[in-house]
Structures are given as structure tokens and as C-alpha cells.
């Protein structure tokens, strides 16, 4: 046996010892978890059930082998799609299965891999096997018996032989401890001994009764269950006698089909017609679970008990789990007649429920006597029953329609004031106060319980009353808190005083409670206390801080002197106030009740220190405080690892994953079965440093993981805070191909080659650079010399230009002088002409016209002599090269006189000077200037002289 299996065996032994002596409650019904066909996605019928050492559930289904790991159902069809009838598991973990014409075993590999080995293939008479169904699989040490109604196929050490009944057909085979029993038809029950079938001495007593189950009983006896004839006991010597029980009539009538031994000498029998009956060793009915109180179907095909002592039921239509080892049992009102339970009380051996439908009653014989609770409506109690109280030995009912007393199961109205919410005894008196819809009522117990009066001064709803001093009380509804002071005798109120200083504005007031000998006020913002010195409310900060999420609980219900129930919108916590110690709070053990209670109307009846009743919205739950012993949560199992890069591809043995497929899904499960789901916490070392938050999701996806080594760790926690050990797996994401070892070697070789090639190329480039450097130096020297030559040439050009400018200036001066000489000559000629006209001869006579004409002709010839102009034009062209050519080319319409005018204007001569040169009047010059502008097509804003200077 391996260390692992040895540990599991010790663990199971510890569990069995820890629950030994714990009896299944006989009142209420355990929680039934239904697994429907749509949930497990296979056939209706489940003929066999088996629980593996690691807690997995295996079912022989009509469509194959069903496996449940606590999180997910998986179906493994048989190779020939055979329907399975039986399943069993050996100590090595092999899952043996048998069905229609097929038997063999499945082995579970790494991470969910299942491999099937067919044993029926080695059978020679395959035709006979094809017509056989394997109904039972019995495992005794190294022998496995595949049992059909015609024979048993015995598998041992890799070979198969046959066990026959000397020509008789079999019914079923049974295993009790190390003994194997087979029922032959018609000769009866036989025991296998030394590979031979030996008839039990008293077999005739059971002849024809069809034995369906054989179970170990105390004093080494065997409990035998027959189909329609009840139970029998067989001694070690084979003596058989009937075992009459209180369950006989039901077991005979509804036909036993199978059985299983539970803890503490209790037995479960599945029937064909009426579900499961659980009996104790005295034959008393402990529980009856059927379709009426939780099962999907009344036909029980198989039974099995898991490691938590839960009872699994394979049905004709589905699979159910019955939490018989749970501390919570239920009375569920499937018909809807009872409704939501607001209040309850045990009174005169009866249990009363006050609901939104009325007052209901049933006999109560405690939890040690089996009784099927049957509630009946008290006549005329229809309506909402808010409160039930034992006042002076009378059952008082606070009803929507008033206050009643129940006498001989008949309601007697004692007050018509509607809506009695709360009954509070007044200390050291015969009076009781009643909170109702319209204020406070006064009740008395002297001489009998009666309603005295409705107190004046207040007509608002009163939900809660708390006595602080002899005549001082606190009252509240959801909107406000008031302090009430009574006059002596409590017949009237002395003072109503609204108190709100220190309370949060618009806060909802849930109630006033005595918590650890302190009056506390429960609000949406936490608990408050009243400071009588400051006369105001103060937040109870110390308590609120220790209560965690229950700091704003809406109800406080006492359990004992230092224990309380705290309720926050149907979420329940049990709080303990140890002397001089930190508050202890358990807020997870009742998670399965969350959402099943009416918010703000939650009710808990503390029957005694070991039993509590929780009012639900469809009945009630019973909590057995000492049942069961807490068990260790099994550590999670990695059920599957999937590569989800493309399609969902399972990974089994090789967890060295290619880099291109670095998207993984890891699913896990802790085979722990409870009405409250298991939560998980995980961390991926190498990727994250911190554990995740607790979550019910049982898988985790990791995408785009970098290459490297990883360790995935996961642990589980139950609803009551028990934490499992850690499960871990290692896997590796391979480096990308370009970072593989061959590629790295190639990179090294390439680097070496590149180094030497680079060195050689560097040396070559260095020489080339040196050569280019010399060439560049020479080229730079040539460029520098060329640049110096160019600069010298520019300097020479500048000197030449300066000389030319000087020469031009000289020529311009010469032109100007020449022009001025012509002007001077023309003026002289004009003066001469003028003087001649005034000249007289010696006789004082003026010259004759003929004389004047000759002289004027000479003057005119001098005026029109072009030699001066030609000389001027030549000099002008030398100074202003191509001026006339450009004018003639651009403006061909210009005549010689226009050209002369242009030349004179370029020399910036005045109109008077130009007139003298042209021998015309100044007015004539202006006219010619005007005509010249027209020919040059100058705009009016353009200066003519500037235009000519720019040419």
C-alpha cells in the first residue's frame, strides 16, 4: 500500500471514529441535493454507485460511466456503447464496470485522463456474454467477481474463470466483510468458501424471497433484506430468523431494492416505489426520504456512502445526495400551505408555527423519536401571526387581527387592537407590555392572562420594547426611538420623549437588544449605546469593529448568557462573548440558509443548547449544535489541464508546453459535498505573488504566459471555514524557437563569425578610411586653394567693378558735361539769335530780313547739327551699354527724339535742360514726356525717370 493510500485510510478511520455514536436526527429531513439528467447530461437510470478513495463519485449509467469530482460531471461511454449496470472500485483505484455484454475497468491517469481496459474481450464464449448483464461487481482481495444472473466471471491475476451454480441461475451476489454470498434459484443462499459454493444451513427460510441486500450487523450477525418479505438476521453459523421492525410494513409494501450500512449502526434501504428508508439497529424508522420531501424519483436503483457519510442515491431518473451527516435538517412546505414562518414555540408537547398564512400545530415528540410532522391549521387563525409567547402557562398569539389565547386548540380573542408584534414581561410585576400597530398595549396575568388597555399618547407602530429601569422603557419602530416613563402601576404614561441625538440621520432602527448586559440599538449604521451623562447616543465602536460585516445586523437573538445569534438580512452568525477575550464569531456554518429567510422577519427559536429552529420562507430548519464533528477538507485535485490556445486540448503527462501554445486552463475540485459550495484560492508562482480571492469557480485561465517554470497552487475552504491542504503542480512554458538551445548555439557561432568578420571588415574599413582621409585632405586642400583663388578673383572683380563704377561715374560726368556744353552752346546760339534781332547798323537801322535770315539759318544749322548728338550718343552707349538697344527691342515704336529724351532723363536732367538740348520749349518737353509714358505703357503711379534708371 502506498503512503498516499495509507494516509487516506487513516483519514477515513479518523472520520468514522469522529462520527461514531452520532445518530441521525429523526425529525425533519436532511438536505437533498438533486442532480438531474440535464445536469449530468447522460441517461436517466443509474444502476450502480461507487465512491473512490479520493472521494470521486462513479455511477453506472445507461449511457456509460459517470464521474463527479464535486464540481463537474463527466461521461465516459463504453467502447460498444453498452449500458452499465454495476460499478466498484478496488484498493488500487481501478474502477471496475459491468453492463450489457461488457465488463472491464477504467484507470484514472494524470489530470483527468481515463483509460479503459476491456476484460470481456478475453472471454471465449462471447455469444453467451452478449446476452448477459453484469448486475453486481464484488471485490475480495485480489479477486473481482463480475456477477450476472447466469454465472460469475472471476478475474484474478490477469486471467478469467467462471463460477457457476451447478446448473441453477443466480440472483444477486453480496459481500459482507470478507464473505461472499450468492443466491441460487431455487436452492437459496450460498457462501463462497475455498472456491466452492456452500449452502447456508437455514437457506430454506429465505427460499423464493429474493435477497436484495446483505449488510454487517452487530454481534457478527448479518442483516438480510428481501424484496417483499422484510428483514432477517443471520448468525455466523448460518442460522436465519426474521427481524421484525417498525419499518416492516413499508419495506414489504414498497419492495426493497438495495441497502447500505451508515454510521452508528444505522441502515439505509432503497425501495422500488417509495424512496429511501433509514432504520437503526433496533429496526426503528429514523428517516424516510421520498419524492414528497426531496428525492427526484421514488425508484432507488443504487446506494453509496461517501467519505463525509453523505448518502448517494442512484435513481430511475437522476442522482441525489442526502446530507444525513449535516447539522441542518429541514421541514419544507412543498405544498405552500404553511408559508413563511415568523414565529414558533414548543408548548405542551406540540410545536406551533406562526406564519403569514395563520397558526399551525403538530405533535412534537423530540428529535429522538421518529415522527412525520403533520401540521394542521388552527381554525379561524388565518392571517399573519407575528408572535407566539408562553405567558403564565398560556399560549398567547400576536395576530394581525389582534391578540388571542389558544385553549383546547380554539382561539380566544382577548384584544382587538391589531398587529401584536412584541410581548415583554415587566420586571417584578404581573404586567406585560405589547407592541402593536397603534402603540403600546398593557396586559396582565392576574388573575389570568388578559388585555387591560391600549395606552394613550401614542398611536404609531411599535415594533420593539426594552425595559431599562423599573418604570423607564425604550420603544422603537424603524424610524425613531422613544423613551417612555410610566406612572406607578403602569396604568398610564408619564412622558413620551423622542430621542435621536447622536443617531445617524435617516438611519433605519432595527431594534433594541440586551447584548452582553448592554442595551444596544441596532441600526443600518451599526450598533449604538445611550450615554446617560451626555444624554445622547454613541456608536458602539469597539463592538462594531469586532463584528466585521455583522456590525449592522438587524436582529439579535440570545442563545445563552454569552452567546447570541446575529442576523443580517437572512445571513446568520453565532457570536460568543468570552470573559476577557476577543469576540468569537462564526458566520459561515449557516450559509446554506442565506436567502431562505424572510428579510427583516427572521426567526430563530432556541429550543435548548443543542437544538435551534430557523424559520424559513417555506417551512423551517433544525440545527443540531453537536452534530457532526467537523471534518478535514480534502485537498483539491487537479482534474484537468487544457491548452486553450486554439481548441480545448487536454494535457496529461507532458507539462512542457510549447511557447506558441501558452494559453492554459487549469480545473480543480475538492470532493467535498455540502449544501454550501466549496470555495477555492490559488496562486501561480512565477507569474503572480499573491493568492487570489476565495471563489466558487473551480478553474482558472492563464493566457499569454511568458516562457519559464511555474508552480500552480490551490487550496479549498468549506462554508464553516475549514481549510484544506495545498495542492501544487509544476509546468514549464518552453522558450520560443528562436531562444532554444540549438538556436542559442547558432547565435554563439554566428556571433563568433560576426566578430572575426567584423574585425577584418574593420581593419579593411580602417585602411579605406585612412585612404579616404588622405584623399579628403587633398580635396580639402584643393577646395581651400580654389576657394582662396575664388576669393581673390572676387576681390579683383570688386576692384574692377569699383574701377568700372568710377569710370562710369567719370563718363557720366563727361556725358553731363557734354550735355551741358551742348546746352551752353544752344543757349549761346539762342542768345545770339536774340541779340541779332535787336542789332542796329551804323546808321542805327536794324538788320534787314535777308541778313537776319542768313544768320538764323546758320544758327539753325548749328542747332540741328547732329555731330554733338552723335558724340553724346557714342559716349552714352559706352557708359550705359545696350541702353538704346534694349529700349528699341522692348519698345520698337520709339523714334530718335524719344530715344534722346530717354537718354536725357536717365541722366536725371531737368525739363529746362532737356528743352535746351532739344531746342524746344519746356512745355514741349512735358508733352514729349507724356507721349513717351504712353509708348512705354507706364502706369500713372510709376515715375518715368526711375523706370529708365532701372533699365
Give the SSE map.
Elements: H1 3-19, E1 29-30, E2 32-35, H2 37-40, E3 46-51, E4 57-61, E5 64-68, E6 73-76, E7 84-89, E8 95-99, E9 102-108, E10 114-118, H3 126-130, E11 136-140, E12 143-147, E13 152-156, E14 159-163, E15 170-176, E16 179-184, E17 188-193, E18 196-199, E19 211-216, E20 222-226, E21 231-234, E22 240-242, H4 248-254, E23 256-261, E24 266-271, E25 276-280, E26 285-289, E27 300-305, E28 311-315, E29 318-322, E30 328-332, E31 341-347, E32 350-355, E33 359-363, E34 376-377, E35 385-391, E36 394-399, E37 402-407, E38 410-415, E39 422-425, E40 431-436, E41 439-444, E42 450-454, E43 464-467, E44 472-476, E45 481-486, E46 493-499, E47 509-515, E48 518-523, E49 526-531, E50 536-539, H5 541-547, E51 555-558, E52 563-568, E53 571-576, E54 584-586, E55 604-608, E56 611-616, E57 619-624, E58 637-643, E59 649-651, E60 656-657, E61 664-669, E62 679-685, E63 699-702, E64 708-717, E65 727-733, H6 741-837, H7 849-863, H8 867-879, H9 883-890, H10 896-906, H11 911-918, H12 922-936, H13 944-950
How is this structure best described in words?
Keywords: Coiled coil, Membrane, Phosphoprotein, Transmembrane, Transmembrane helix. It comes from Sphingobacterium tenebrionis. Residues 759-821 form a coiled coil. The chain crosses the membrane at residues 737-757. Residues 676-734 form the Two component regulator three Y domain. With 951 residues, the protein is an alpha+beta fold. Among the domains are: 41-164, 7 Propeller (Methylamine Dehydrogenase, Chain H); 328-383 and 553-626, no CATH class; 637-739, Immunoglobulins (Immunoglobulin-like, Sandwich), CATH 2.60.40.10; 741-866; 880-951, Winged helix-like DNA-binding domain superfamily/Winged helix DNA-binding domain (Arc Repressor Mutant, subunit A, Orthogonal Bundle), CATH 1.10.10. The protein contains 13 helices and 65 strands. The protein has a five-stranded antiparallel β-sheet with strand order 1-30-57-56-55, with no helix packed on it. It has a four-stranded antiparallel β-sheet with strand order 2-29-28-27. Helix 6 (741-837) packs antiparallel against helix 8 (867-879) and helix 10 (896-906) crosses helix 13 (944-950). It is elongated, with a radius of gyration of 59 Å. The termini are far apart. The relative contact order is 0.06. The model is unreliable at 1-21 (pLDDT under 50).
Amino acid at each position: 500500500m502506498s503512503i498516499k493510500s495509507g494516509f487516506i485510510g487513516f483519514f477515513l478511520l479518523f472520520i468514522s471514529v469522529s462520527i461514531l455514536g452520532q445518530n441521525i436526527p429523526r425529525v425533519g429531513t436532511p438536505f437533498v441535493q438533486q442532480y438531474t439528467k440535464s445536469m449530468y447530461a447522460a441517461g436517466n437510470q443509474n444502476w450502480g454507485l461507487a465512491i473512490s478513495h479520493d472521494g470521486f463519485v462513479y455511477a453506472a449509467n445507461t449511457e456509460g460511466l459517470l464521474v463527479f469530482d464535486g464540481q463537474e460531471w463527466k461521461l465516459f461511454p463504453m467502447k460498444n456503447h453498452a449500458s452499465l449496470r454495476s460499478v466498484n472500485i478496488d484498493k488500487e483505484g481501478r474502477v471496475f464496470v459491468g453492463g450489457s455484454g461488457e465488463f472491464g475497468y477504467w484507470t484514472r491517469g494524470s489530470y483527468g485522463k481515463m483509460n479503459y481496459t476491456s476484460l470481456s474481450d478475453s472471454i471465449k464464449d462471447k455469444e453467451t456474454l452478449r446476452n448477459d448483464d453484469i448486475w453486481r461487481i464484488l471485490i475480495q482481495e485480489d479477486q473481482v467477481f463480475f456477477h450476472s444472473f447466469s454465472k460469475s466471471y472471476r478475474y484474478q491475476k490477469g486471467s478469467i474463470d467462471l463460477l457457476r451454480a451447478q446448473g441453477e441461475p443466480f440472483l444477486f451476489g453480496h459481500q459482507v466483510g470478507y464473505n461472499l454470498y450468492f443466491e441460487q434459484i431455487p436452492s437459496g443462499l450460498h457462501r463462497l468458501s475455498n472456491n466452492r459454493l456452500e449452502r447456508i444451513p437455514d437457506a430454506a427460510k429465505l427460499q423464493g424471497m429474493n435477497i436484495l441486500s446483505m449488510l454487517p450487523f452487530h454481534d457478527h450477525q448479518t442483516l438480510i433484506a428481501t424484496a417483499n418479505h422484510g428483514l432477517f438476521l443471520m448468525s455466523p453459523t448460518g442460522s436465519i430468523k426474521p427481524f421484525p421492525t417498525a419499518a416492516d410494513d413499508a419495506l414489504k409494501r414498497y419492495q426493497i431494492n438495495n441497502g447500505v450500512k451508515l454510521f452508528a449502526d444505522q441502515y439505509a434501504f432503497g425501495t422500488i416505489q417509495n424512496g429511501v428508508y433509514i432504520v437503526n439497529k433496533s429496526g426503528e424508522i429514523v428517516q424516510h426520504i421520498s419524492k414528497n420531501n426531496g428525492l427526484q424519483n421514488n425508484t432507488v436503483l443504487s446506494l453509496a456512502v461517501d467519505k463525509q457519510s453523505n448518502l448517494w442515491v442512484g435513481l430511475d431518473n437522476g442522482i441525489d445526495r442526502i446530507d444525513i451527516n449535516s447539522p441542518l435538517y429541514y421541514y419544507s412546505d412543498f405544498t405552500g400551505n404553511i408559508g413563511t414562518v415568523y414565529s414558533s414555540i414548543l408548548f405542551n408537547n406540540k410545536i406551533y408555527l406562526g406564519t403569514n398564512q395563520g397558526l399551525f400545530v403538530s405533535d412534537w415528540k423530540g428529535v429522538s423519536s421518529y415522527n412525520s410532522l403533520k401540521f394542521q391549521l388552527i381554525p379561524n387563525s388565518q392571517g399573519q401571526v407575528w408572535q407566539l409567547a408562553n405567558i403564565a402557562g398560556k399560549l398567547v398569539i400576536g395576530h394581525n387581527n389582534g391578540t388571542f389565547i389558544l385553549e383546547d386548540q380554539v382561539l380566544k380573542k382577548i384584544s382587538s387592537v391589531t398587529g401584536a408584534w412584541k410581548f415583554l414581561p415587566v420586571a417584578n410585576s404581573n404586567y406585560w407590555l405589547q407592541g402593536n400597530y397603534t402603540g403600546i398595549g398593557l396586559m396582565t396575568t392576574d388573575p389570568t392572562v388578559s388585555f387591560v388597555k391600549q395606552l394613550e399618547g401614542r398611536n404609531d407602530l411599535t415594533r420593539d420594547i426594552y425595559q431599562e429601569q423599573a418604570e423607564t422603557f425604550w420603544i422603537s419602530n424603524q424610524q425613531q426611538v422613544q423613551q417612555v416613563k410610566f406612572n406607578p402601576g403602569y396604568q398610564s404614561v408619564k412622558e413620551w420623549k423622542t430621542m435621536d441625538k447622536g443617531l445617524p440621520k435617516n438611519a433605519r432602527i432595527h431594534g433594541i437588544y440586551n447584548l452582553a448586559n448592554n442595551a444596544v440599538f441596532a441600526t443600518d449604521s451599526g450598533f449604538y449605546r445611550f450615554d446617560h451623562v451626555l444624554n445622547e447616543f454613541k456608536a458602539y465602536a469597539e463592538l462594531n469593529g469586532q463584528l466585521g460585516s455583522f456590525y449592522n445586523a438587524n436582529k439579535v437573538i440570545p442563545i445563552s448568557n454569552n452567546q447570541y445569534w446575529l442576523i443580517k438580512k437572512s445571513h446568520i452568525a453565532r457570536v460568543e462573548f468570552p470573559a476577557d477575550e476577543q469576540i468569537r464569531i462564526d458566520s459561515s456554518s449557516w450559509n446554506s440558509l442565506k436567502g431562505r429567510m424572510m428579510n427583516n422577519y427572521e426567526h430563530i427559536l432556541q429550543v435548548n443548547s443543542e437544538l435551534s429552529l430557523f424559520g424559513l420562507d417555506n417551512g423551517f430548519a433544525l440545527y443540531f449544535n453537536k452534530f457532526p464533528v467537523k471534518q478535514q477538507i480534502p485537498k483539491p485535485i487537479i482534474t484537468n489541464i487544457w491548452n486553450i490556445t486554439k481548441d480545448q486540448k487536454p494535457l496529461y503527462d507532458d507539462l512542457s508546453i510549447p511557447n506558441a501554445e501558452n494559453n492554459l486552463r487549469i480545473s480543480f475540485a475538492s470532493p467535498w459535498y455540502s449544501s454550501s459550495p466549496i470555495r477555492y484560492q490559488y496562486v501561480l508562482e512565477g507569474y503572480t505573488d499573491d493568492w487570489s480571492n476565495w471563489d466558487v469557480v473551480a478553474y482558472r485561465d492563464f493566457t499569454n504566459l511568458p516562457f519559464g517554470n511555474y508552480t500552480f497552487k490551490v487550496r479549498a475552504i468549506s462554508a464553516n471555514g475549514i481549510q484544506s491542504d495545498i495542492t501544487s503542480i509544476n509546468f514549464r512554458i518552453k522558450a520560443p524557437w528562436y531562444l532554444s538551445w540549438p538556436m542559442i548555439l547558432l547565435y554563439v557561432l554566428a556571433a563568433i563569425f560576426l566578430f572575426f568578420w567584423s574585425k577584418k571588415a574593420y581593419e579593411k574599413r580602417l585602411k579605406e578610411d585612412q585612404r579616404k582621409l588622405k584623399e579628403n585632405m587633398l580635396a580639402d586642400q584643393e577646395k581651400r586653394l580654389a576657394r582662396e583663388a575664388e576669393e581673390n578673383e572676387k576681390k579683383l572683380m570688386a576692384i574692377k567693378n569699383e574701377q568700372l563704377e568710377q569710370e562710369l561715374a567719370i563718363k557720366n560726368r563727361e556725358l553731363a558735361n557734354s550735355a551741358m556744353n551742348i546746352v551752353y552752346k544752344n543757349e549761346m546760339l539762342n542768345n545770339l539769335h536774340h541779340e541779332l534781332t535787336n542789332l542796329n547798323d551804323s546808321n542805327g537801322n536794324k538788320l534787314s530780313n535777308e541778313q537776319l535770315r542768313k544768320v538764323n539759318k546758320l544758327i539753325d544749322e548749328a542747332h540741328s547739327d547732329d555731330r554733338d548728338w552723335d558724340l553724346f550718343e557714342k559716349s552714352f552707349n559706352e557708359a550705359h551699354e545696350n541702353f538704346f538697344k534694349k529700349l528699341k527691342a522692348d519698345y520698337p515704336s520709339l523714334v530718335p527724339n524719344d530715344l534722346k529724351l530717354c537718354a536725357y532723363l536717365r541722366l536725371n536732367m531737368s525739363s529746362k535742360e532737356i528743352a535746351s538740348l532739344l531746342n524746344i520749349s519746356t512745355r514741349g518737353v512735358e508733352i514729349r514726356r507724356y507721349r513717351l509714358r504712353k509708348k512705354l505703357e507706364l502706369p500713372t503711379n510709376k515715375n518715368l525717370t526711375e523706370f529708365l534708371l532701372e533699365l
